[in-house]
Amino acid sequence: MSSLPPYLAEKLLQLCHGETIAASKMKHEITSNLVNEGIIVEYRQGRTKSSLQIPHPEQLADYLQNHFGIGNLEAYIETARQQEVNRSDLVIASSDSKMRQVRTFKGFIVNSYEPVEGSINDNPYIINPVTGTFVFISDYESFIPAQGITIVGIENPENFSRIHLQQELFAGLRPLFVCRYPQNQSKDLLKWLQMIPNHYLHFGDFDFAGIGIYLNEYKTHLKNRANFFIPQNIEELINRYGNRERYDVQKVNFDRSVVDEDGLVNLMAILDKYKKGLDQEVMIRV
Known about the structure:
The chain is an alpha/beta fold and 286 residues long. The protein has 11 helices and 12 strands. The strands form 3 sheets. The protein has a 6-stranded mixed β-sheet. Helix 1 packs antiparallel against helix 4 (73-81), helix 4 runs antiparallel to helix 5 (87-94) and helix 9 (234-241) packs parallel to helix 11 (262-274).
């Protein structure tokens, strides 16, 4: 049998408290089974309507314990309502760690090519991964980078993993690199960026799609704390390595009226001049 849906658990709790509920509001296989077991009593009201009651709540308690491992219906409902729970909470509530989907690994990965100071839970912490490794920040709510650290958001995984080959791009900055992928962690990353005061620099593809990702996913939330990274030799790179087909496809659906950042205006003029877009991966080799 499937697990007990939270909405149905709430209806059963109402019945345990002596309420009467229309049968039409509790249509489910579990309800039918409880009626067949005599735990829920159905009272007919005319030819088409009927209502449900539970005369002996202790019988329902035994049924829920035996069939679903639920020892406390109120605790089960409370756990189901919580936005964030641990698998241990689910086992206590229902004897089933898979009662609902739980993101065990919340957080995001960070990278750097030089030590980056910060703190976690008010304890000093230095991020300094060995080349070929990353640091996973799970308790991101308490992670605070030092003042003066620029958070560089990288759109594509290859640039993130090989950032040590791109150090010259960020000369003069004290960067901490974060990655937009995997996607199921991007919401945690955005929440964290909104919590901290550090400046955000977006390092993405140099095309309309990359600009759109920056504007829609970051700039709209971070406002003046965000900028788009554009290397000084971008015109030469677009002319030499750019892709014309990407430009033709992406320019159609891009709303230029939303762009008011000077650097992006200049970048779009270069894209239009050469009618090309450029993948950021080229920065690893040039």
